[in-house]
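Example record for the data management plan.
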Amino acid sequence: MVSSSPSIVWFRRDLRTADHPALLAAAGRSPRALGLFVLDDRLLKPSGQPRIEFLHRCLHALNDQLGGRLMVVHGDPVKTVPRIAQEIGAGSVHVSADYGPYGRRRDEAVEEALGDVELVRSGSPYAVAPGRVLKGDGTPFKVFTPFRNAWLDHGWRAPADTGASTVDWLEPPHSTAIPKTTEKLPDAMRLWEEFRDERLPDYDKTRDRPDLDATSRLSAFLRWGVLHPRTLLRDCDGTYRSELAWREFYADVLWHKPETARQNLDRKFDRMVHDDDRELFEAWKQGRTGYPIVDAGMRQLLAEGFMHNRVRMIVASFLVKDLHLPWWWGARHFMEHLVDGDLASNQHNWQWVAGCGTDAAPFFRIFNPITQAKKFDPDGAYVRRYAPDSADLTPIVDHAVERQVALDRYQAIKS
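Corresponding structural encoding:
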């Protein structure tokens, strides 16, 4: 039913106007809407400057789509959103559903604080909302491949037909300032189309090569919802579609087991003995381990807020199984520096490497950083780009020795 009261579209991880179910729902309630984004310290404080800078660029791009009418405020959403709703006499607040542990708690608190103003959840950052794909007995999947098959069978809706003109955007009720940025956000659709047309046909053969420009580099755009995965799924199949399924799988795991953002999914790993060597951890963080591909990956992370996925697995294995340090130390470092840092994907990819997560690689699968470099950076181009001096550094540990230490520690917790 169309109301004379305006709506609020509260943007979070959906910083776009195209294919936006919440925007469509808002238009169904009122022809007028206020576009709102809340800079929430609970989410900003764990984020490093690269991710915050990318967010600001996303906000500027969204503001341009809204004709300069995006309202950006800094504060606690539980207080801020109801206050602004009351200020403009909003009849409803529209959001894309958040399935993360904090987001769910926040939205429940906002919903209660809004009182008679309805919080309407429409769509999500995923092609299929977490919790929807279940086994035949109604329980969640614990292994990726059966999940992916069921996810493909379930399918997803076509992209929503929305754009900046779906509603009339209200002028913010008071002045608002989006934090300044150093550069504009690239056109995400153009980047996707270039990848789709030029590199996607060879993706299954080249995706593990960090020395090649073979991946889409769209993970940050997906993380902030500048692109919706349905847009990409419409134009791809095969290996790339499976990579998107991993993202949906880990979101589903975290939905069912929110405690795994901080805890081992396989609780026997709570007994695993870890070291507490801060000097080794610092050498890993700075890319000064003496293992060239590890150092190149860690320096790429610091320089670009990004790391190639194959290299993420190599450096994670090195931290957990060569340095015997806790996976959550590495996960926290990644979340601080990755522009595409996503809680579900980050934590559960780390647990996959550490052997303690859902569908985990066996713990005894220990990446050899030397043979991995030979296989995936055969000419050394990736290492030369990011860590040209690493070969001159003395390795901080002996991989063969530490591999055996890791296996012995695993043996002790198996029973």
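Summary line stored alongside the record: The chain has three domains: 7-124, 126-158+188-256, 258-413.
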